[in-house]
Amino acid sequence: MKKLTLKLSLSLILGLSSTLTFATENGADSFALGAEGMMAGALPPPGVYLLNYYQNYHAGSFDQGPDSFHLDVNAFIPRLVWMTEQNYLGGQLGFYAAQPLVDLRLNINGMSDHNAALGDLILGSMLGWHQGNHHWIGAIETVLATGQYDTPTSAQPVVANIGKNYNTIRPIIAYTYAPANGLDISTKLSYSFNDENDDTHYKSGAYFAGDYSLGYKLNDHVKLAIEGYAFKQLKSDHLNGDDIGQKGQVLAVGPAIQYQDQNWSIEAKYLKETNIENRPEGHTGLLKFIWAF
To answer: Alpha carbon 134 to chain centroid distance?
Structure first.
């Protein structure tokens, strides 16, 4: 069995819809904020890997949004990764696919909805490089509008949509510095380009998102870290082709712990959001289990 040394990006599709307008459509995005942490820039040897990922997210307020807002999300995301023996531009070639399963409860100003369904399908390809203590990843990820989606109506203005009803293209870079002294400095950065939601004629502006981790290996099995994420929307949203001047941002931080054995690892973290603009404000708990076949 291969010794597992990877952290790979996942995407939680957290979609919600109402008649309100916020930065990115209803404050949602298709980047899994906080999913990556320790060893985020290191890809494993050739082989097949299964990542099982669970996230619980709760938000009790919405900056510049409704007076009463509650969102609860539970998501399970299986992801299959295939690292080939092929090399291009000096980097190892890999592919991945992920299919989120999401349970979402939404309440806005006394109106509520609940839904549990498949989210949008995620496909990606990547190259990984290694040089001593330095590791890099370059990837292209596509989020396809395959998840369940219902257009809000006057009779049902609040809809807990699992799918987003638009596609996203996302270039990604990740880096890890992991010297023998046990230090682990890792980050994953991305930039997302969204097309228009044909049903609402809303186009979420392009945004930057990044995960970060500062960790230390206590022994051959256990690492501790301070981790978090940042989100900054750089392009305003458009509605019916008009710039509505809405941009969102968020910063999060919290503790994380990882246990790693011969061919598997498990990581848990708790992250609290702050510096919110035009988005929900909450906290998230994440659990990731990775198995190398």
So the answer is: 24
92-128, pLDDT tens digit by residue? 999 999 999 999 999 999 999 999 999 999 999 999 9
Q: Cα–Cα distance between 292 and 68 in angstroms, integer?
A: 44
- Phi and psi at 26, nearest 5°, equal 60, 25
CB atoms within 10 A of CB 58: 15
CA 132 to centroid of chain Cα atoms: 28
Tokens 């990984």: give the residue. 128
Using only C-alpha atoms, the chain has a radius of gyration, in whole angstroms, of 19
Integer angstrom CA distances of residue 39 from 49, 138, 183, 212: 16, 14, 10, 10
Q: Give me the residue label for tokens 């040897």.
A: 45
Q: What is the C-alpha to C-alpha distance for residues 273 and 33, in angstroms, rounded to an integer?
A: 11
Domain ranges of the chain: 25-292
| Beta strands 47-62 and 69-88, pairing class | antiparallel
Residue 27 sits at φ, ψ, to 5 deg, of 75, 10
Give the Cα separation of 242 and 28 in Å (integer): 20
Residue 97 CA to residue 109 CA, distance in Å, equals 37
- Give me the pLDDT at residue 4, please: 34
Residue 279, CA distances (Å) to 69, 152, 160 in order: 11, 19, 16
- How far apart CA 120 and CA 12 sit, in angstroms, is 9
Give the pLDDT band of residue 23 (cuts 50, 70, 90). low
Per DSSP, the chain holds a count of helices (H) and strands (E) of 0, 17
Please give the CATH topology (third level) of the domain spanning 25-292: Porin (2.40.160)
Residues forming beta bridges with residue 51, ordered by sequence position: 79, 290
Number of residues that make up the chain: 293
The amino acid sitting at 61 is S
